[in-house]
Structures are given as C-alpha cells and as structure tokens.
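Peptidase M1 membrane alanine aminopeptidase domain-containing protein
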Amino acid sequence: MPQVVEVRSPRGELLSNLDAVVVKYQQQIQSDLVFCRVTCYITQLISASFKSEIHEIFDRISYGKGATIIQMLAAFLGEKTFRQGLTNYLKSRQYGNAVQDELWDALTKPRTKQAKVDKVPLPTDVKQIMDTWTLKMGFPVVTVTREYEKNSVSSAR
C-alpha cells in the first residue's frame, strides 16, 4: 500500500514519513516565501460568498499551505489512523456540506483509540492542534537544533 507521504531524496532513496514531511515543508516554504503575496498573511479558513471571490482567495500558495498542513497531520497521526479517520469523514459527509471541525473530530476518534493501544496519548485533540495552523496567519517557522547535551527548540513566525 502506498504511503500517504512519499518523497525521494535527490539520490532516489525513499525518505521516512517524518523526513518526507520535513523536506516537503522546507521546499514549500522556500518556494512560497519567494512568491509570497497577500495570501501569506491570511488564514486558511476564509468565507467566500460569490464564485468570483474564490478565484481571488485561493492560489498556488494557499493550496500549497493546505497540502503541507494535511501532510504534516498525516505524519503525526500515522498513516493507518489518518486513512481511517479520513475514510470515516468522507463517508459520513458524502452527500452534504462540512466544516473543518468535523474533519478534525473524525481524525481525533481513531487517534484516541490507537493511543489506548499504544499507551501514547495525544496531548490534545486534533482540532486544537490544527486550528493553530488553519486559523492563524502566515507560516510558522520551527528551528530545531539537536545537541546531545542540551536540546533546544525555538519557533518564530
């Protein structure tokens, strides 16, 4: 079964999900920052009342940010949990409208079940994590420095 996230290194090696997400995210940010326009400073969740507004709001950057967010979500939930939650979500909403909170809820349920098996609880629900990505402006930039004596993590926007 193919992975949700599949990226190959320049030498052709298949990268792990986490490495793939990091590489894709770095590439996306670098590309988007070069061509960044107004959409870099708006949230992912925007209402549109008219068809013409849709074309003004969504562009390559907003779609790229959305894809990157979903890839990161799939990586931290795990492929099995992500697919199960997404399948349940699509089946339950196949003939109707939906809002993002319904997707986050559908993805939280299988993760909660899996956490009981793994004995690794999710620190919060998916909604709380994802709202920071979809309702906030811009791109968060996280710098991780690995030192064996002292681990440091800093984040900035």
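thats it. The domain at 17-156 is CATH 1.10.390.10 (Neutral Protease; domain 2). The radius of gyration is 17 Å. bye
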